[in-house]
Automatic annotation (TrEMBL):
Domain F-box: 1-45
Pathway of action: Protein modification; protein ubiquitination
InterPro entries assigned to the protein according to its UniProt record, in alphabetical order: F-box-like_dom_sf, F-box_dom, F-box_SCF_Substrate_Recog
Statement: the UniProt record of this protein carries the keyword Transferase: no
Pfam family name, one: F-box-like
UniProt protein name: F-box and WD repeat domain containing 12
Protein encoded by which gene: FBXW12
Entry keyword annotation includes rRNA processing: no
Length: 393
């Protein structure tokens, strides 16, 4: 410590540190503390973790980037560190039958302490029951783009001659994945900008992915432009996972989308064909298998296995922070850990099925969460209900 490095050199070295390394460096001496507190370093950490490139000093107000980062991190941990008795719950009955949840708003990057969740859904009648939504696909193969929050129609694009069953926007909002009801057609990826600003007389920029029989797909939040597909062949029932990277390139004055296959593996024959899947860091895939939750590398190596459900998992939710699994009797909450080469999952807690009526045959049809709430739709014989768990803050 006898040699004091220039501020610029020290700042460059500190830029390679993670959260805990930066906090430790700030405790060495006053000089290191001053550099480690700089907005440049904490803004860089924030950009690595969240999509906050449009977040300005005006949004921060009187707060620093360090305060912003730590505040968002506390919000992420709040749900993971909770206990079942920390939740209050509310049940809303007689919503649209078999409504599918589409959006939950409580992950917004704000400095607000009191955060409320706004829910939206899509009914089987193709009605938008929503406060916030971006893209919606229909049974005629069209993709509609709407503004936020007024739901003003921006564009309508015919993406497929068949109905669209999967429509997923990438975490950075750059890409839209679309897959039709006819599984032997190739799934497509659209450049979002071409949907938001469609050119008259020309088709939106898109490309087909060279993989048929797709039954599910997910983007990886922590690696931009990475997409994993799950396919199942009949009658063999073989399940395969294929991971692609997407890039754009200017060729002859035009932009083209390039697809690069980076990994694939086939699931062992003794494992059931999964229904649900998700991803986190770009190198791992999580999916359900009967009552089990399995974590694999994208090359097919089993990393982790959870056996927390007694019955088959009937619904599933994955985001950059949490994994939720549901069965008829409970909801299990897991959180992604960041230690080691691969992130792994930590089992946080279980929420009991407090809404269950033993006289009816109910089923959880969808589940999702944000930093403030966990929301389920439960389908009963003749109606659906919305079950909301909120942290009692």
């Amino acid at each position: 410590m006898e040699i004091q490095l220039p501020d610029l050199a020290l700042k460059q070295i500190f830029s390679f540190l993670d959260l805990f390394g930066l906090l430790q460096a700030s405790q060495v001496n006053k000089h290191w503390n001053r550099i480690a507190e700089s907005d440049f370093l904490w803004r860089s950490l924030s950009l690595q973790r969240w999509d906050c490139s449009n977040f300005t000093n005006q949004h921060l107000g009187t707060h620093t980037w360090k305060q912003f980062f730590l505040h968002q991190r506390r919000k992420e941990l709040r749900l993971a560190l909770a206990q079942p008795h920390n939740f209050i719950y509310k049940v809303t009955k007689n919503i649209a039958y078999d409504m599918e949840l589409a959006y939950l708003s409580g992950n917004s990057l704000t400095m607000d302490e009191q955060e409320k969740s706004i829910i939206c859904g899509v009914s089987p009648k193709q009605e938008l029951c929503a406060w916030d939504v971006q893209e919606v696909g229909d049974a005629a193969g069209n993709i509609y783009t709407f503004t936020l929050p007024g739901l003003r129609d921006v564009s309508k694009v015919t993406a497929s001659q068949y109905g669209i069953v999967f429509l997923h926007c990438s975490p950075d909002k750059k890409w839209i994945f679309a897959c039709g009801t006819y599984r032997r057609t190739l799934p497509q990826v659209f450049l979002t900008e071409s949907l938001l600003r469609p050119s008259e007389g020309s088709a939106p920029l898109s490309t087909s992915l060279p993989h048929k029989l797709c039954v599910s797909a997910c983007w990886t939040p922590k690696v931009k432009n990475r997409l994993t597909l799950m396919s199942q062949s009949n009658p063999e029932k073989k399940t395969e996972f294929v991971t692609f990277d997407l890039t754009t390139k200017r060729t002859g004055g035009q932009t083209v989308i390039q697809v690069h296959k980076i990994a694939s593996f086939q699931l062992a024959a003794h494992l059931e064909s999964p229904v649900w899947m998700g991803a986190n860091d770009g190198y791992t895939i999580v999916f359900t298998n009967g009552p089990y939750l399995l974590l694999f590398s994208i090359t097919g190596f089993l990393l982790q296995r959870f056996e927390d459900h007694q019955a088959a998992i009937n619904n599933f939710w994955v985001d950059p922070r949490y994994v939720l699994t549901t069965s008829k009797n409970s909801v299990h909450v897991y959180m992604w850990e960041e230690g080691g080469r691969h992130p792994y999952l930590r089992n946080c807690y279980r929420l009991e099925n407090i809404w269950h009526d033993p006289t009816t045959d109910d089923c959880i049809s969808s589940v999702m969460c944000d930093n403030a709430s966990i929301v389920l739709t439960v389908t009963v014989s003749e109606y659906s209900m919305l079950v909301m768990y909120s942290l009692n803050t």
